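4.2 Preliminary Data

To establish feasibility before requesting continued support, the project team ran the inverse folding procedure on a target of 368 residues. The structure was first converted into the token representation described in Section 3, and no sequence information of any kind was made available to the design step. The complete token record follows.
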């Protein structure tokens, strides 16, 4: 063995912190403003409320506060952080990574690899994978990684995507698998497409809605197909305590799981049964915050892990336009049952102010 060879560390999520901004808009208010039937947003898309940032809050504050919460819950020494990776598609600079803002505010510097990851909503998952693989490779020695996924999703006024907007941040310390062990094997799928993109210098994304739905469903089908392999799909799905998806809007997840289920030859009743039992409950927080892009899957994962017994397994499907996708497998650790991070969600949702259609219009006006 060479002098530099190191042992592989047990790896997973050691702590979680979440943060949502201080305002929210019920989708009924937006429907009124845009002259739409509120059921189109509530039933047609499955949305309830969207998180909105006040004028003085940006993705920097969301990412930093989520990271501060995750670090304070972790209990390790800051000196052990050897990597800060921030996934976002709300970059504030084309060169300086968002991780530098976070590190600056948290007083993290030194022998740390610090960077931003961009691949639309998949960026947070890539950061998690890189952190996990860094530890699993032995290169981390006994260091831990701080991973943050944070975004503010805003569409142009009147865009069909407007009711799906949202904002939020999730931070995780990747270290000992106290909350969840991360399987070393995962199942990626990517295809170059223009389904959703934001050219440099433009404030809002351009979207080919129908194409984006199609790409998402195809990615889900291929990732689940690879994960299930030759095994009996019923058995594999039944053994999972929860199945989490990236949630651009809840109806998208339902559509994608139907596609997966049909591909696996499950009948409509079984697909519906799995959806209601293992997927719908994981989107409880997503329905109240809207699409937080990179954070969206991890909000769902945080909800799913809360309360699980050690050893229970969770599937996590990530999708980012462009497009790249990956299905990861997690196994709950001893601290999942307590679900300490639920406190962040309860506090932020309880304390936030609901604005109405007028308040929302004024906010948009002040931003532009
Ligand atoms: N009552 C109940 N339901 C109604 C209704 C009413 N009065 N009126 C319409 N609906 C239903 C429609 O039947 C439809 O349901 P189905 O799809 O089940 O048929 C649903 O409401 C949506 O209506 P439309 O099909 O008319 O869709 P739209 O033109 O309003 O746009 C969208 C929908 C394309 C998803 C749009 O919201 C969008 O562009 N969103 C952004 C892109 C997106 O989220 N893509 C998802 C995959 S890409 C990704 O995941 C990355 C990411 O985060 C963005």
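Position-by-position output of the design step:
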């Amino acid at each position: 063995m060479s002098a530099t060879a190191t042992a592989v560390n047990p790896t997973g999520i050691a702590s979680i912190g979440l943060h949502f901004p201080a305002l929210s808009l019920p989708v009924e208010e937006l429907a009124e403003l845009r002259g739409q039937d509120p059921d189109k947003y509530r039933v047609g898309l499955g949305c309830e409320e969207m998180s909105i940032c006040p004028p003085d809050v940006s993705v920097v504050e969301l990412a930093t506060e989520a990271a501060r919460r995750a670090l304070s819950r972790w209990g390790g020494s800051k000196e052990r952080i050897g990597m800060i990776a921030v996934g976002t598609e709300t970059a504030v600079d084309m060169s300086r990574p968002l991780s530098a803002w976070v590190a600056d505010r948290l007083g993290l510097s030194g022998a740390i690899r610090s960077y931003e990851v961009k691949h639309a909503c998949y960026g947070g998952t890539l950061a998690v994978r890189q952190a996990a693989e860094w530890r699993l490779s032995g290169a981390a020695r006994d260091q831990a990684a701080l991973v943050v996924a944070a975004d503010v999703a805003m569409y142009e006024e009147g865009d069909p995507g407007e009711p799906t907007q949202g904002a939020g941040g999730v931070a995780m310390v990747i270290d000992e698998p106290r909350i969840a062990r991360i399987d070393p094997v995962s199942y990626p799928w990517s295809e170059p497409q223009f389904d959703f993109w934001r050219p440099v210098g433009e404030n809002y994304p351009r979207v080919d809605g129908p194409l984006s739905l199609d790409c998402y469903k195809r990615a889900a089908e291929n990732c689940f197909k690879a994960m299930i392999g030759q095994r009996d799909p019923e058995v594999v799905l039944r053994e999972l305590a929860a199945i989490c998806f990236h949630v651009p809007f809840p109806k998208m997840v339902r559509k994608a799981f139907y596609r997966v289920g049909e591909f696996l030859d499950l009948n409509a009743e079984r697909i519906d049964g799995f959806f209601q039992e293992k997927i719908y409950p994981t989107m409880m927080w997503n329905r109240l915050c809207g699409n937080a892009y990179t954070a969206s899957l991890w909000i769902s994962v945080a909800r799913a892990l809360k309360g699980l017994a050690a050893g229970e397994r969770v599937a996590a499907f990530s999708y980012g336009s462009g497009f790249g996708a990956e299905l990861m497998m997690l196994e709950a650790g001893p601290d999942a049952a307590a679900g300490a991070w639920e406190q962040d969600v309860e506090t932020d949702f309880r304390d936030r102010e609901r604005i109405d259609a007028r308040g929302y219009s004024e906010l948009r006006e002040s931003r532009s």
